[in-house]
């Protein structure tokens, strides 16, 4: 049964016929079905009675709803459908619409689910301008009907942001920055939820200039694809970032994060009063997301006595890059004391650069040991002379063991050190013994003395005239050669002693310089290289020979005897 009232709220009756019509149909369908027996035309319509107790005019009739799909439809009634009454001052009340439900009219009602601070979350939590920020949330359907999009009307969420300079959003508008994938499954009514991040996750690709404060919201069903019982809560302010977090979403500016990774004094030994280049390495940690310009480096040096030097800037200010790139700051340092120095480095010590972390800019505890500049005596070569054509030493032959001593240190020897320069000789194979020889007080060899007694007496059993007048009457017997020479850096000297090989055998000689360690060459280092070993093999070299061959031919006549004379000898007979 269709019932509606009509009337004339004016002061006079209409001067023209008035037509009344009614329709049934879908709001989205402009060609609604006209309800019979309408339209109905009246010659005029009188004003409504003044007595409020009298009912208005009324029209009632039966109507059968056509076979339509379930959903919401409208009954629409209109008076003066032909617009005959040109004197009507108010036509806004000429139409009355009644919405009715045919069949099951339950509708969805989608919104962001309120779960407190987790209603809307961001990844990462500390967002930096210039990076991609992801937002996650959960949708709930508080309506009675299921919410399901279609390919032509997809269920999609919008991500919208609002700039709030200095925390003030006045006169700012929402701007869409992204939309989700279309949600395919239906979301059941009566509290059904959907939280699949693979569909709902919303990314905001921010720019460096976006730093500052923002409000953020998710608009459910951004394309209004789903008919809902309440469309006003799809972009509910109570579900915005500001309301959920009680504050605005902040995009912080990109920052560097400087760290000192090493202090290097180079590969060589550091000596006192010698310039060394300190190299301080600076890079950035994994937190950094921007290069750092105008970076300054400071160092502080503690001397071996514990005196603390001032912080001082080294090198020029530089730029430090990202992704493991290392920048080096250098300082030419001349240590003046011997011992262990402590060196600390501090990048951006005055905090002129805003960084993610300010407590990781210092490098402490680098120890640099400074050594005294000393000579370094080494046996650079040991040779035997003479040798045969095959390079073997020769048994029974007066031979020499020739040693070259070189100063490979970093300073010249002093005259005092030169007076202490000694070379000692040993044999370990085929027997073990010092190799003794005779030497005068001036370091000259006295080879004519072949034993200790003769050397110390200055006599070989013959008259004293057999001893050269340039030598002392006595000498020193032992295995130490007194060089008595101060070697400059890189300078060498040659020392040789006599030796006779007694048998065919393998020989091993050991030669040492400064065996008594009276010349300082450095603790635990250069002193270990003062020894050399020479291996040799000696073979018999006895050589029979004929020499001084002569023939006396007399008058040269044939048939006469001609004496032939010559000398026969044997060389290299073992002594």
UniProtKB/TrEMBL annotation:
In this protein, which residues make up the domain named CARDB? 324-364
Question: Protein name, please?
Answer: CARDB domain-containing protein
Gene source species? marine metagenome
